Please model this.
Amino acid sequence: MVDPAAGSPNDTASDEAPDGAAPPLPNAALLAPVAVTATREGYLEAVALLATGTGPLAIDAERASGFRYSQRAYLIQIHRRGAGTFLFDPPAIGDFSELQALIRDEEWILHAASQDLACLREVGLDPVRIFDTELAARLLGFPRVGLAWVVEDLLGLHLAKEHSAADWSTRPLPASWLTYAALDVELLVDLRDRMVELLESSGKTSIAEQEFQAVLGRETAVRAEPWRRLSGVHTVKGLRGLAVARELWLERDALARELDVSPGRLVPDGSLVAAARALPGSRRELAAMRDFSGRASRSELDRWWSAIERGLTTEDLPRLKPVGESMPPPRAWADRNPDADRRLKAARQAVTRIAESLDLPVENLITPEVLRRVAWSPPEPPDPGSVAEALRSLGARDWQVEAIAAPVAESFVVGRQSPEAAGSTAS
Model:
């Protein structure tokens, strides 16, 4: 995979290896020079070229998280064998219906698909079949699943990731960023082919297919009280302080949406929380707070003081705990619900053993949340059939149910009969 301008195939991440160390890996290099397609004419030509390619399509998207309010895609990269690599500017192109019609029924290869599906769907690109290389790496038991690490492990190439947190709304995009973006998709097809072999040889093809389909069908959760995401909000005391924190968060969110700026770039979370803890009694007191900082902390001072006033006077006070929080944290179970605590301890031991035997991370065998919910409110009697039904109702896939329903049901019985057998509680 070499672009003449990028160097020879033997270029390496460093010139020499230290004595006794493994030689450095060759750098991944572009197949051909790339440029951004930002016109309708160029886009339609690219779609026609993609139609001449064969096999699955590697797709990635770049956003401007941390810089912009929206999570829209500011660059979409596509690679297909026999066609080449294409970089699209979504804000400039607008309508992607022709591309969607062409590739909808093909397999799309993405790395950490759940991160990109929302912004792809926002512009009308929605797959029916995917291969997620990050998820496949987890299922294969890889210790590191970032794209650069997986490329290193399976393809023996060094892939630089220095622009992953860049502001992709920048125009024009620097040439080095375009190289980075193109390489993110040019290596995915080879990566997918190697992983298909590994999944087949480890007997995990069906597991991977079920997990990929689950990613496609997963809906983005909408938090009932998103202001509780404020970092440090747990340090705010009393309902009045929480009301001020809520109003400040809502005001900042509205301004960030209007300006399309990341909220934290206006006023950081720590400043909002500091104001909610201090409960200043006047605009002047707020202005005097050294902890209330940020680029919009003074230019929009009237806005923040109005929010604080609303929080100080509202009769609509928030709950101390989030709505729908029905279970206490596991560390409190021993006191609050000893039977559930014993069930959870025993079930965790059983699930951990199964995950180790399958060479899977425990959280991919079953999510901690699902296991906690079944342990907190188990079916009665807790036999394999009833536990399987409970797991399915909480979203567990068939392969997960088949692997853990019977051992979890047995662990519930063992945990109830012999508390000491369950071991120590993990948080």
Strands lie at 36-37, 57-62, 75-80, 84-88, 108-110, 130-132. The chain is about 50% helix and 5% strand.
